[in-house]
Amino acid sequence: MNTLENIASVFRDTFSSQPLLVQGCGRINIIGEHTDYNEGFVLPASINRYIYFAIAENGTNECHFHALDINDSYQFSLSDIKKSDKSWANYLMGILDQLQKENILLEGVDVVFGGNLPIGSGMSSSAALEAGFALGICSLFNLQKSRQELAQLAHRSSNNFIGIPSGIMDQFASLLGQRGQAIKLDCRSLQYEYVQLDLKDYELLLINTGVSHALANSAYKDRVRECREGAEAVAQKFEGIQSLRDVSLEQLEACREDMTAVVYQRCRYVIEENERLHQALHLLTNGEMEALGELLLGTHEGLSKEYEVSCRELDFLVELAKDHEGVAGARMMGGGFGGCTLNLVKKSAKEDFLKYAKKEYYRAFSVQAEHYELEIVDGTDIVRG
Ligand code: GAF
């Protein structure tokens, strides 16, 4: 865990210059999981978990990156940007690569970064890395890009340089988040609106399984492929289908024989999840927190049984939440196979629930689960210029 002050001070000691300071935000997603790459809707928000950067240009062609949390460094020349075996460095290099592809000439930069956003926790430390670095570089070199353009650039970097066919939710949430608000984002048109997160006497709480499965990347790619296959099968029978976003449950049912059972079940989850998101918006507006919690449980059920991206530890934590007084609902959050559960908990029941969940989790897995109390904050930003 590093603070902005640490990062700035290590930078000054290492490079003897005054850096630009940036904070890249993590995100939660209320509902709408694995819908973004199907051109559906998502409801994320940026949270008070950060990766802090200290960045300065160095007048050379060389870049020096230092990842303070893991005490690792990487150095390379701007004329030779290629993927390295240090995955953290790739998230930063990918941004420079995209800028070079736009024929934007940069000079070398020195970077120190670190923070309080745990890697592999499902809060998208990768988007915080990309978003924070992209905003920092654009500010340093006076590149005129809107936040939406930066999110698109970071998303292209994830897809093309990192090689994960993810949707745009994480980068968008990190860069466009606003205090106290979730973002209802249409991942096809990128039109968005802010939704006030008034949770009445409830709050959102993350509990970290501490698990991060190696399987996640390849399974993610499989899900993207399966969804595409399903949409293509439906498009053979019905007009106007570009992605699962356009498919109704009736249409899917009519094409059930045209796809494998697995593809059918993946598609059904995605279509139902988009519907759940719209219901959730309605419940949020009406302050119906218990019904919202039920929807979260429905999402988890789908992710676990139909989409098959959960794991034992996540399922265990959700089961605990389901049975606990004062917890409206819970679900796994993000890509899956580990990370955190998102819990909608009555403020008065929070302490009791946390104590119980941590005790039971330890009993089952011999792991001390961490929890994070959330504040919905403004997204990634320059802290000091
Ligand atoms: C990961 C991806 F990066 C997002 O684009 C999204 O698909 C999410 O998993 C699942 O909703 O965070």
TrEMBL record:
PROSITE patterns the UniProt entry points to: GALACTOKINASE (PS00106), GHMP_KINASES_ATP (PS00627)
Database matches in Gene3D superfamilies: 3.30.230.10, GHMP kinase, C-terminal domain
Residue span, Galactokinase N-terminal domain: 10-56
Keywords carried by this UniProt record: ATP-binding, Carbohydrate metabolism, Cytoplasm, Galactose metabolism, Kinase, Magnesium, Metal-binding, Nucleotide-binding, Transferase
SUPFAM superfamilies: GHMP Kinase, C-terminal domain, Ribosomal protein S5 domain 2-like
GHMP kinase C-terminal domain location: 281-361
Pfam family, one: GHMP_kinases_N
Biological-process GO terms, alphabetical: galactose metabolic process
GO molecular function: ATP binding; galactokinase activity; metal ion binding
Family per record: Belongs to the GHMP kinase family. GalK subfamily.
PANTHER family in alphabetical order: GALACTOKINASE-RELATED, MEVALONATE KINASE/GALACTOKINASE
NCBIfam families registered for this protein in UniProt: gal_kin
Protein name from the UniProt record: Galactokinase
Organism: Phaeodactylibacter xiamenensis
